[in-house]
Amino acid sequence: MMAKNKEPRPPSYAVSVVGLSGTEKDKGNCGVGKSCLCNRFVRSKADEYYPEHTSVLSTIDFGGRVVNNDHFLYWGDVAQSGEDGIECRIHVIEQTEFIDDQTFLPHRSTNLQPYIKRAAASKLQSAEKLMYICTDQLGLEQDFEQKQMPEGKLNIDGFLLCIDVSQGCNRKFDDQLKFVNNLYIQLSKSKKPIIIAATKCDECVDHYLREVQAFASNKKNLVVVETSARFNVNVETCFTALVQMMDKTRGKPKIIPYLDAYKTQRQLVVTATDKFEKLVQTVRDYHATWKTVSNKLKNHPDYEEYINLEGTKKAKNTFSKHIEQLKQEHIRKRKEEYINALPRALNTLLSNLDEIELLSWSEALKVMEKRPDFQSCFVVLEKTPWDETDHIDKVNDRRIPFDLLNTLEAEKVYQNHVQHLISEKRRVEMKEKFKKTLEKIQFISPGQPWEEVICFVVDDEAFKYITDGDSKEVYARHQREIVEKAKEEFQEMLFEHSELFYDLDLNATPSTDKMSEIHAVLSEEPRYKALQKLAPDRESLLLKHIGFVYHPTKETCLSGQNCMDIKVEELLANSLLQQDHGRSNLYHDSANIDKINLFILGKDGLAQELANEIRTQSTDDEYALDGKIYELDLRPVDAKSPYLLTQLWTSAFKPHGCFCVFNSIESLTFIGECIAKIRAEASQIRRDRYMANLSFTLILANQRDSVSKNLPILRHQGQQLANKLQCPFVDVPAGTYPRKFNEAQIKQALRGVLEAVKHNFDVVSPVPTIKDLSEADLRIVMCAMCGDPFSVDLILSPFLDSHSCSAAQAGQNNSLMLDKIIGEKRRRIQITILSYHSSIGVRKDELVHGYILVYSAKRKASMGMLRAFLSEVQDTIPVQLVAVTDSQADFFENEAIKELMTEGEHIATEITAKFTALYSLSQYHRQTEVFTLFFSDVLEKKSMIESSYMSDSTRESTHTSEDVFPRSPRGGSLDYNYPDSEDDAEGPPPYSPIGDDVRLLPAPSDRSKYRLDLEGNEYPVHSTPINCHDHERNHKVPPPIKPKPLVPRTNVKKLDPNLLKTIEAGIGKNPRKQPSRVPAAPPEDTEQSDNYAEPIDTIYKHKGFADDIYAVPEDSQNRIIKVRNSIVINTQGEEENGFSDRVSKSHGERRPSKYKYKSKTLFSKAKSYYRRTHSDASDDEAFTTSKGKRKGRHRGSEEDPLLSPVETWKGGIDNPAITSDQELDEKKMKKKPHKVKEDKKPKKKTKTFNPPIRRNWESNYFGMPLQDLVTPEKPIPLFVEKCVQFIEDTGLCTEGLYRVSGNKTDQDNIQKQFDQDHNISLESMGVTVNAVAGALKAFFADLPDPLVPYSLHQELLETSKIMDKTERLHELKEIVKKFHPVNYDVFRYIITHLNRVSQQYKTNYMTADNLSICFWPTLMRPDFENREFLSTTKIHQSVIETFIQQCQFFFYNGEIVEAPNPVACQPPPSNPVQMVEPMVPLQLPPPLQPQLIQSQLPADPLGII
User: Are 873 and 843 in contact (CB under 8 A)?
Assistant: First the structure.
């Protein structure tokens, strides 16, 4: 009963899908589509459809529960409702053949029948077989739905025969039909319904489909359904038709053609897509994610329908496209905002049209990046492009992404910006043109009102164009510039005239007379007159300067933060603090050491021998010294060991000292090299300050065999090396000892190590004890001027780079301490570095043993300050002068630098001081040894200096009014003799052009003048003793006379007999007796500035009369005394000149004077100020009242070296004012015929190199690039044309053309006049040919780049080495063609001119060789600082010489000519007198090359050959 009430179960059918299967050989590369057809029918949703299924399985997968060792798959079941509403369930079986992935043969199964028979089976059985879903399921069954085949068995109700109608993969369609035919035969035997499914109809081949239809038409009741599993077309129809055939109750199946079914399916998809896109477009935020949106839409029918038809992947892609569109729309709007804001940014950053007018957009971008306001307008993103970063979301950040500017839109905005600026260009150009017009009007002075100038510019084109407001604005700007420049030049002028201000005491107030004197002197200066219309400002600057001079402090220094005192304190605070901190940790625990670590360095086993000797004297490595026991740790190392440096310093062994033992010259030299390496390693690596302060001790081993022969030499050499290394030397004690080392030596050495350790600890003690001044053996003051163009660390580097440098006492922020061995003892030297204005108080009030006076060779004011300070220094105090410049090449290239360096050396020569130079571009001269001779000199005079200081202090304390009698500069000792002949009228030699470090090989007797640097190389000491012989090879000067020591003189008659004869002759010709007394002004009216010694200039003196007449300010009776130097020395003249016995007494005990009375340069400078302020007076004698008038008046002449308009120290071949002023030469020739001295000519011809003259004014022509001075129509600069034309018209035959320097003032005037008027006529100026030639050379020297490009120098040098002449010339010709066209034209022009000059060599003596010597440094601009260059100077010269000689060949296609060989230019003989030792491989710079002075040598000057 109950069974009858149950609802009938829906019918269930099992369908077997069959078709071509097997190996790749049977079915091709791909199957016929059975799996895809089953997949689409069973799981029709797009997300559940897998297009790829494989039949190649591993053995494991084949045996899994899904395949279950069967060759068929159970796809599951599908519930389906027919048109009549009857439901049924369809189980799908796919009959296939699985292939082994190892053998590629069918897997072995329980059913061994072939596929055709297996596929036709109507009963299938497989226990626990799982439903198949996809290939990924195999092996991972637990991750997928697990559904078993019902009861493990199925009865097949119908067959779906699949035939692939696509092109197939390596499969013949006929073979497939043949297989299908056989399969159909087997299937038909089962009597089950069969339907043919034509698969892959979306890739259908028409005739294949027709053959299938023909095949079916031949069979009874065989239906063909055209399907596509990819697009889900007719898949369900196929199975439904088969069910209808299996169920007789159903109607006949309705088969729809593929195209109709495809259109229906696509229409369904399109409709669903439209609905879904509309649904997606409701999302407006492009930040929305698919996960969020899909969760919101998952229940929407339109969403579900689209997901089922197209799948989640396509839905996500559709969503992503929509989001991207939203994002791009947002980016477009932001980009539009940025582009609109770009013009404002360009106006801010690129507002200068002249700067960007010719720039491309990419170049403009680089310019903008360097602007300071760049970050406020643009933002540089780490990731680009900007629209792919989060910057697009930063709505509040209005800065423009920088990479956006790389677009065409941005470039177009830039172009519009440039066009906008061009519209303003005319007005800007006219303003600038008007500004230049104002600059050309020379009479516009600082402070001149606009109303006074307007009448001169009313006709100017630019003035007419611009507005009145613009013209006033331009003029105001012009006034600001010239006023500022005039004030700077005025301030510099005040410093140059330092002698005017620094003759009064500190805190003094200048009197009205003093102010009148200052104004009288300064009023002659153009820089003073330049501020005439700004007199209040000028007076304010002057008063400010005077206020600073007499009340100097760091706070009121006119240089501000560039004050030397401030910079020195900062540098010392940083440098010495770091040094001391590094050493304090090392020596903190070393004050009371019990263990001494010793490093013993020796050669050939000496180190081990010394270690053995020390151990012999020790007990269990304990050594008794001075009542204390020390543990010794000895590390002997052979000096030849390659591991020397690594063994010296280890983490476990830090030596307290190093014993360096030697027994021969060879071992001593080797030891010196090793120590140099150790110190160099310590200074370069700076791994530990301990290494830099390691104590070295030189120990001489006893020579038992040849003690008397070698010991003195070794002792001398060892002591010299010890002095150089600043370390102790332990000598062999007197007596005879059987061993190499003596106990006394070892104890002495150990004491030295302990003393060094204690010294280092004391130096870096964190709390220094306050001691008196006696702690420092010497107190040295180094003075430098504020504002000088060099760094403070440059002048302090000789001290700070020394390992013996340490901080001074607490509170002395501007001092440092040096520990150096001077003589035989270690000395402590306190160096105090001050500005000149701070040094004035020290000079007067404190004990100073020596001064190091530093000045810049680039600044006249620096030299002026030095002169003013030095003038008031007592002449008992040693002085070291230091000139500072960039390099030695400055001496050649800059006339002003050369003049200041020469003046400094000359002053040093006059006062017997030391002189040296420091170069900022060279490390060579930055060694403490540069000042060693100076320190030694100071030490020698220490007692005298201190006695003088104490004496002065005593006199001041007792208020004694007795004055110090000034010592005449040649009182008893002549520095130089000044001969009578015209040839010898030149002054002392200027500064050596190449520095003291380059010289010929010294004779053994001169070796003492050399010192060893840390590398063991010899270098000369930079000082200027009186007997300096270096100048003799460069200049024609009388032989120097060795100065006599400053000792009490009892016999004052010891004087040069020649000088006495000259003086007597002068007295005889002018017998005149001086008054014994001259009344003086009252003391209270006498200014301290009057304290200069004044020459008696009212006596007419013949040439040869000694100009050594000085005035002493006052004697003890307040009387003015005139002293003639020769009379002072001669006791017979004392009474005649009004001197009492005190004069003679002064010779027995000389009292200190000031350096201004010892130097003609200093004295004449001070006197010149006085004479200028009293130039309008009568014939009154200086410093006298109207009662002391003289009848005579001095007439300045050449005979008076003090009063001559040309200072004698500027004499010599380097001074154009002396050697090349033709008018002066003509006067001299008239006075005295020129005497030809062949043996002296070569020395006068040494200076063939004429350094380029540098300008000291602003120019819009000179110093400009060559390209700016020429045009295609006029390829030669106008100034060059004028000069060359003038020279060739008037002076082509002038002797020494281009070799003899012209007057520098005339050269400057030529260029200045040309600056103002390019049409100036040189003939109308009345200048000499040499002046024009010098101006022409200066033009080329001032070019920013040399005429011969640097890039071609190396090629020219290499080509010049080619031996074959013809090949060499042709190669040079090709190189010349590489010149820039502008350079080529000018080079051809000037070389052609020089060729014309050389053709007149018989009259002007200027051959191509001589011309090349003069011109090659100007045309090629050499690097004198490069030592490699020194060996190629002759090659450089030969290149220019070749161009001059072969001018026609190089530039005018002429023939190669043979070089002329005049007698005057013969090369030196093959065996001349040997001037240097042959082994010296030294090439000197041009001024000193021997080959350059041979032109004046006869063929055999000494008659040797």
Answer: yes
CA angle, 1201 as apex, 1199 and 1203 as ends, to 5°? Answer: 95
659 - beta bridge partners?
A: 600, 697
Q: Comparing C-alpha atoms, which of 380, 368, 535, 540 is closest to residue 447? A: 535
Q: Give the three-state DSSP class for 879.
A: strand
886 by DSSP, 3-state: which? coil
Tokens of 825: 């003892």
Looking up tokens 């017009």 gives 437
Q: Residues near 951 by Cβ (< 8 Å), separated by ≥ 6? A: 1151
In the three-class reduction of DSSP (H, G, I as helix; E, B as strand; rest coil), residue 76 is classed as strand
Confidence category of residue 683, pLDDT binned at 50, 70, 90: low
Please state which of the ranges 50-54, 195-199, 924-928, 1128-1132 shows the lowest mean pLDDT: 1128-1132
Res 1199: pLDDT: 33
Task: List, for residues 995-1050, the tens digit of each pLDDT value.
Answer: 333 333 333 334 343 333 433 333 334 333 433 333 333 333 333 433 434 444 43
Residue 916 and residue 908: Cα distance in Å, rounded? 10
Q: Specify whether the CB–CB gap between 1317 and 1350 falls below 8 A.
A: no
Look up residue 589 and give its amino acid: D
DSSP code at position 982: S
Q: Two tokens at 1425?
A: 């600082």
- Look at residues 545, 571, 539 and name the one whose alpha carbon lies nearest to residue 559: 545
- Asked whether residue 1486 carries a pLDDT value surpassing 80, the answer given is no
Residue with more model confidence, 806 or 433: 433
Q: What is the pLDDT of residue 720?
A: 84
On the question of a cis peptide bond just before residue 1381, with omega within 30 degrees of 0, the verdict is no
Which of 732-741, 1091-1100, 1406-1415 has the least mean pLDDT? 1091-1100
Contact yes or no for 595/631 (Cβ under 8 A): yes
Total residues found in the chain within this entry: 1505
Give yes or no for a contact between 1137 and 1124, defined as CB atoms under 8 angstroms apart.
Answer: yes
1505 band by pLDDT with thresholds 50, 70 and 90: very low
Relative orientation angle of helices 408-423 and 425-440, to the nearest 10 degrees: 50
Tens digits of residue pLDDT in 1077-1125: 333 334 333 334 333 333 333 333 343 433 333 333 344 333 333 333 3
At 392, phi and psi to the nearest 5? Answer: -65, -20
> Do 984 and 1048 contact (CB within 8 A), yes or no?
no
Return the HEC string of 704-747.
CCCHHHHHHHHHHHHHHHHHHHCCCEECCCCCCCCCCCCHHHHH
494: CB partners within 8 A, 6+ apart: 501, 522, 541, 542, 545
From CA 995, how far away is CA 1024, in angstroms rounded?
12
Answer whether residue 559 shows pLDDT above 60: yes
Query: Does pLDDT of 953 surpass 90?
Result: no
Other Cβ atoms within 10 Å of 343 Cβ, number: 14
> Are 969 and 913 a contacting pair, CB within 8 Å?
no
Exposed, middle or buried by CB within 10 Å (0-12, 13-18, 19+), for 876?
A: buried
3-state secondary structure of 809: coil
* Three-class DSSP category at 695: strand
In whole angstroms, give the CA distance from residue 16 to residue 187.
11
Give the residue-averaged pLDDT of 528-539: 88
Q: Is the pLDDT of residue 1172 over 80?
A: no
Alpha-carbon distance 575 to 1167, whole Å?
44
Q: Please report which residue ranges of 1247-1364 form alpha helices under DSSP H.
A: 1278-1290, 1304-1316, 1322-1325, 1329-1341, 1353-1360
Predicted pLDDT at 320: 92
Laid out side by side, the sheet with 622-625 consists of 622-625, 628-638, 595-602, 657-662, 695-700, 729-730
* Spatial CA neighbour of 200 closest among 35, 74, 49: 35
Q: Which helix (H) or strand (E) holds 164?
A: strand 158-164
Residue pointed to by tokens 């002392």? 988
